[in-house]
């Protein structure tokens, strides 16, 4: 078995307590590597390295930082297929999806590399004579990055690229289920010429390695992607040391089909919303809202297409639905299927495990007759389980669409431009897709409302998540008229 260690100050470092744990291939069910089981002492060492590297990195010219990020982008493209394979071995998602993600993530390094030397403060007008006032954007400091298991490297890159471009140094705590790709990625960071200590990785469990990072007094910001429950906990703990926090959390996104839509396209949109990535995606369109007039015909088409999905080996380019990534997630999905049945929803497809080598497959599952108040409509399943909810009017669609605690994304299928604009305005979510689904880009802001989180990733504004504004006042004459009043 391959043995991975922490990556601290440019070196592979064993856990200070000497403990390790195994990482498992979800398709075969077999352990294939060991990881260092990090503790607070390891986090201390990584934060110290990031702190020591901070001044040097923050004062490297932004042009030079940008060039290193662009070099990293080229290396990422060269290594994309290999990185994608490591992702598949660790999280079981399809190679078609993961190799696509690892190739595309190069764009985040290129985009923020280009942005690094375009972060401009302003000279401000002043109401006070003889004063020159300007703003500077300065890096926040050491950033703790905590990532989930579903798209480890892509979601890391959404944070790492802007953080490095801004001049921050980082300590990464990847998911305990999928740390290997992040550690392999460090060789690429090194090859790009990013100095030791600027990027560090501590592996381990959330409570043992993640929590000390959130508590650490020398960490200025936590950038987290994961569940709403962990996000809430992290936000509470981070408040004790007044950290900045950005949270990318879960979703229960409505995918809304009106009777005037191109129904064949909408069927494909519904499939991509819930069965791509085995439903293990924060932006899953897990609630399919169908206008009543098309409900039955649409469900018939949907069931037909979904029932033809090939379930199996994620490394095969012909597979459509792979295994569930983790044993707890597998148990959770099956539990939600039971919940939906007990709530009175009708299972029209799947609803059971599927045989496979590692024993972690769930059939694509569709429930009709779902009422939006049911748990299956309100809670994130994070698996291939779709709830179909009928609606009558546009007003109903808005009300049902917004009636959850999450607000990550929504899909709208219509050929009426006025309706598209009205819906995109009225849905209380961070992203609305009209006549498409599950599109993301380095150029477009992404994030949620309500329990889906706070802050935005991607796009030019996201770099400000890693910067603080300083206001500088320079008096052109040194005399102080009256020191006892505010100037
Ligand atoms: P999770 O919250 O269980 O774990 C995420 C990370 O947080 C892991 O690295 C874990 O070790 C760490 N962690 C857990 N508890 C912690 C604590 N108390 N302190 C510090 N770190 C802690 O999430 P998961 O199961 O890995 O990922 C699935 C979830 O992520 C889903 O809810 C999904 O919707 C969400 N997600 C959101 C986005 C987004 O961009 N909005 C993207 C992907 C996944």
Structure characterization notes:
- The protein has 487 residues and is an alpha/beta fold.
- It folds into two domains: 269 residues, 3-Layer(aba) Sandwich (Aldehyde Dehydrogenase, Chain A, domain 1); 181 residues, Aldehyde Dehydrogenase, Chain A, domain 2 (3-Layer(aba) Sandwich), CATH 3.40.309.10.
- Helices cover 38% and strands 22% of the residues.
- The chain is built from 14 helices and 25 strands.
- The strands form seven sheets. It has a seven-stranded mixed β-sheet with strand order 15-18-19-14-13-21-22, sandwiched between helices. A six-stranded mixed β-sheet has the order 10-9-8-11-12-24, sandwiched between helices. Strands 1-5-4 form a three-stranded mixed β-sheet, with helices on one face.
- Helix 5 links the parallel strand 8 and strand 9.
- Helix 2 runs antiparallel to helix 5 and helix 4 packs parallel to helix 5.
- The longest helix is centred in the first third of the chain and has 30 residues.
- It is globular and about 80 Å long.
- The termini are far apart.
- The mean pLDDT is 97.
- It binds nicotinamide-adenine-dinucleotide.
- The site of nicotinamide-adenine-dinucleotide has 32 residues, from helix 7 and helix 8.
